[in-house]
Amino acid sequence: MTLRLPTLMLGNFRRLAVPSFCRQINTLSGQDFPVKEMTLEVESVLVTGAAEGLGLEFVRQLARLPTPPQYIFAADINQRNLEIVKRVDFNPDRTEIVPLKLDVTIRRDREEVRKAVEELVGDMGLSLLVNTAGMAHIHQLRDLFGVFMEEHFRINCVGPVMLVMEMFPVLYQAAEYKSGVLPYMSASKAAVLHISPWSPFINDDDPMLFYEEEIAYRTSKVALHMAMRCLALNLTNLGVLALQMNPGNVKTTVGQYQIPSLRLQNPLEVSHSVSDMLKTLAQCGKSHQGAFLERNGDFIPF
Ligand SMILES: NC(=O)c1ccc[n+]([C@@H]2O[C@H](COP(=O)([O-])OP(=O)(O)OC[C@H]3O[C@@H](n4cnc5c(N)ncnc54)[C@H](OP(=O)(O)O)[C@@H]3O)[C@@H](O)[C@H]2O)c1
């Protein structure tokens, strides 16, 4: 069965927005879930950018959870799909890895992915959406063209936001499905996670923190921060958690070859970064709604 969001609910998004939102997300106090350590238990997860880097590692580690998801939708722009399945160690009796083609910037792809997910998950909905799809290319300011900035915006911000919009109904379905067993917001119920780099505050006065070659990458990710905070307000009313996390400086194509500021630091293994993020994600609840977190759970001010 496919559940569509009631029109009334969509119309009421703004009016129902939680006014104390900004105060809530900057404190760990007042958590709305039990204090004991939580483990992540999701029925289904969609990972974008799943053929390599952080995305592939999310697929690997999710498949090895003590209670693994029934469905892992591994979406890749280049259809390196069979390759993904071969590179992941999973128990076929407990988990099905479903390779999907997804360019986050293409509307038709997003729609096809939503339909494929709906068809398999049915009433359970989609528990977790992990967006790792992203691009980072550098350009000296003198070579910067609008088209280059636009490409970063489309891949790092517009596509991921539109994907969340497309998946609203299935995420809401998951929140409803588990509302009896998990009355509070939780990543084990229904959640969206975006991966974003740490960046200096915009008004920071240390020029060393700003790398002119990264202007397109950084501005597109800051736009994603704002977009996700706005979306998070609305997702609260649907019981869907929305977070962003900084993975650290990780040994991936983006981390090691494309971003000059990351090359200066000691890189982390992908497995280390993803394992930290999954542990943190499992502990997140309503007080983390719309937040930007370090992989260890510390709040990052915007
Ligand atoms: N690694 C780090 O240190 C670090 C630090 C902070 C934040 N991040 C963020 O973490 C995310 C994952 O990066 P990563 O380090 O794992 O790099 P990665 O290995 O290059 O993974 C990014 C993936 O996204 C895919 N992709 C690019 N454009 C896409 C599109 N339009 N639709 C769908 N998929 C697309 C890429 O495919 P192609 O290979 O075909 O382009 C690639 O598979 C990125 O958003 C990045 O900004 C990484």
From TrEMBL:
Pfam families: adh_short (PF00106). The keyword Oxidoreductase applies. InterPro entries: Fungal_SecMetab_SDRs (IPR051468), NAD(P)-bd_dom_sf (IPR036291), SDR_fam (IPR002347). Keywords: NADP, Oxidoreductase. It comes from the Eukaryota. GO terms for cellular component: cytoplasm. GO terms for molecular function: oxidoreductase activity. This is C-factor. It comes from Trichonephila inaurata madagascariensis.
